[in-house]
Amino acid sequence: MSSPGPRRSGAAETGAEGTGVGGTAGTGAAEAAAGGTGAAGAGGAGAAVPTRERMVAAAWELLGEGGPDAVTLREVGRRTGLSRTAPYRHFQDKDDLLRAVAVRAFERLHDRMRDAVDAADDPAQALRGACRAYVGFALDQPRHYRMMFGDWVLAQKHAEGPQSGSLREAADRLFGLAATVIQSGQRAGALRTGDPSDFSLLTWSFLHGLVTFTLSAHLNADSGAGEPGGEFREALDRLIDEVVHGLAA
């Protein structure tokens, strides 16, 4: 797994270790702001936002509202106040637009986890915070998460073209983050010695499985799919604590 490069600019997001997966109040709005806010754009009041960025922002919102099927170039044009043909000057087709949204999603998840790592006081807290940030993002943005780790994005990562290259780069930076955090913990003597790639794969597998079960409601049937209650979120925190404890030196 590759090591993550420099962080990309974006809205600051919460996700410090102490917040827990249930302590992400407001992060859904923060993610929307990071992805953009439709025609208003992601640059804030009074900022001039490039047309392409406004369209990616609108597509981000549409994806969150109704999944990939809800994202159309015509609706993106309508939401951004552009003509029907304007989106085609920036994106070849819907897939091209969705690739840009997927890149942004990987970047936002990486930055959210990185924020949690930076806010931690020790290596174990850094790993715990990164795990909680991952789960929190998935619960806040379930449709984005499903697309990121679905078959369509996997196929796009192996396709030709600059957008696919950007998608691979963004995904690699995300996956490299866990290995980097684990290596730092090992150097500090806080985490067990061993192949950091193996420990990273273990961590990713646990997190993805936990999120998948949660979003499908197989583990939280009483709460409803994708809507775990406070007690269940606390249970997710405890499971993350167990994994981090298992990797501790």
UniProtKB/TrEMBL annotation:
Keywords: DNA-binding, Transcription, Transcription regulation. Residues 1-46 are annotated as: Disordered. Residues 17-26, 35-46 have a biased composition (Gly residues). Residues 72-91 bind DNA. GO terms for molecular function: DNA-binding transcription factor activity; transcription cis-regulatory region binding. InterPro entries: Homeodomain-like_sf, HTH-type_TetR-like_transc_reg, HTH_TetR, MT1864/Rv1816-like_C, Tet_transcr_reg_TetR-rel_C_sf. SUPFAM superfamilies: Homeodomain-like, Tetracyclin repressor-like, C-terminal domain. Residues 49-109 form the HTH tetR-type domain. This is TetR family transcriptional regulator.
